[in-house]
Amino acid sequence: MTTRLKIGAALLILSMSYYIVELIVAARWPAPHAYSWSRNMISDLGVPECLGDMRRYGGGTTRDRFICSPWHALMSTEFVLLGILVLAAAMLLSPLLPKTPLAEAIPYLALINCLGNVLVGVFPGSANEVPGGSHIRAVLHPTGAYLELFSGVAIMAIIAWLYRSHPGYTAFTLALLAVSIVGMVASLTSEHLGPGTAERLAIDPFVWWRIGTGVVLLAVARRPDVMASR
């Protein structure tokens, strides 16, 4: 069980590769343009087409950006890897969860999250913003993004409930859950943050939570009973 706990924790912590890859791919944006963390969407990093200035396709807040990602394949691969990591970690760690119906939903939610990430990576975004863009990509990419987002939120909510007797960890989980909800609302109602910022506030908390949870699990690896639900 201790070995299972350590490997599962390590897989969760490996989610930080997402941020490393983001920085690398964004840095390859062609000069004199720069990837905008507030205006550009996350998925812009994985778009295979060099679309240039999106304003030429019409107005709108999501079009006020430049898209050209030479290292798009690396970003798309990372999206798929993120999904595999969360599913593998869930398969290893689920047997250590409390034996309740809610806990039994975690592996299935992880599978949905994995599928969402795979769809995001295999069917890169933004093609639907271009006249004549792929209809399949236009449908499957946002579908994957929503699956990823809502399954991640559900996992955090369930874990917060299961481990409500551990106030520090529960507060950490609920805080990230709240940030994700704020990001979802901001993506629909606010233009001040920028679409990229709002999207990151909605999606990134689940990645932060995975990294933080991995660190917590490694810290208690010598005493796996510490995280037992009471």
Query: Main sheet?
Result: 2 strands, antiparallel
Tell me the span between the first and last alpha carbons. 19 Å
Number of strands: 2
> What gyration radius follows from the Cα positions, in whole Å?
18 Å
Number of DSSP helices? 8
Question: What is the H/E string?
Answer: HHEEHHHHHH
Mean pLDDT: 89
Broad shape = elongated
Strand content: under 5%
Q: Tell me roughly what share of residues is in helical segments.
A: 55-70%
Major sheet: arrangement of strands: 1-2
What are the low-pLDDT stretches, counting only 5+ consecutive residues below 50? none
Total domains, how many?
Answer: 1
Instruction: Assign the structural class, choosing from mainly alpha, mainly beta, alpha/beta, alpha+beta, or little secondary structure.
Output: mainly alpha
Task: Explain what the structure shows.
With 230 residues, the chain is mainly α. The protein has one domain. It has helices spanning 2-13, 17-27, 72-93, 101-104, 106-122, 135-162, 167-189, 195-219, and strands spanning 52-53, 66-67. It has a two-stranded antiparallel sheet. The longest helix has 28 residues, at 135-162. The radius of gyration is 18 Å and the shape is elongated.
